[in-house]
Amino acid sequence: MANIEVKAPGVVKLLGEHAVVYGRLAxxxxxxxxxxxAVKQTGGRGLTILLPDVTSSHVSLDKNDLKALFSSFKAxxxxxxxxxxxxxxxxxxxxxxxxAARLFAEHKLNPEGIEVSITSAIPLQKGFASSAAxxxxxTVSLLNASKIALPDSSVIDxxxxxxxxxxMNEGAGAIDISTSYYGGYVSYSASSGAxxxxxxxxxxxxxxxxxxxxxxxxxVNKVTESYKKDKMHIEKILDQxxxxxxAGINALKSGDIVRLGSLMLMDHALLSELGVSSDSLDAxxxxxxxxxxxxxxxxxxxxxxxxxxxxxxxxxMEAAAMESGFDARSIPVSLEGAKSFYLYKSE
Length: 347
Known about the structure:
This protein has 347 residues and is of the alpha+beta class.
């Protein structure tokens, strides 16, 4: 067992939110703020998990604990039932303990004398996929330190268990975990799955926290209700969002940032028509238009929270946005993900 530190980037959605729920294409990008997982060998027994950003206490699990946890996970009737049955381990620790239990049971991870500390510089609950980055960094750090070789698809699926628990959703993490693992740009649809796009465009984003956001589940349900009431109209909007996503990939591949920006503005207008924008998000989009950004849009579930923008001079616009009262920061896309640390990967 080697001492090792792995970092995994946060994630923003460039195009395709909500439409992806209905089988259309979405595009995400990894961003250069990171979660880290540090593994070290100790003289103790079992696996010790520390979350210093959350609590000063720690949880230690031996082989019997991990075996029992994996059995409970495999036999789960639902994520909620599994969570309720095992939250005594610690609600914050359970996602990571579950990942470790699966690695122990399926891939012969030796948990004896391992200490793992997980930290994150990614803002929580703001739409930047902090939980996905933490799960990804944790999974890759254990695999790498233990010299366990797995295909990329297996690593991603195991890391997704963390997001499945955090979000109480069996389908969680498909795009966020994949993007944090691969880095760069990732597309996703239900039919094609997650795909790392061969794009080297070094995009600089302005990330804006527009304030309190409604839950993604609430926003998804809002679109669902609209879909039930007027399926034909909503399908038309979803198709247009899908077209923005496909054209956006082509714009990124050719390095046409002006075209990408116009597609982002179109996408935001369509998402607003779906009812998932907010006054705070629209205020930033209005600011971006007045300041001649190439493009701007909400990022994620909407209802407040994260927005992104692209412009000719990001540093100047960061200062202008902050002067106008926005919580803004310039962040480049991270073309490398946690996979770059996974020395023992195999296909």
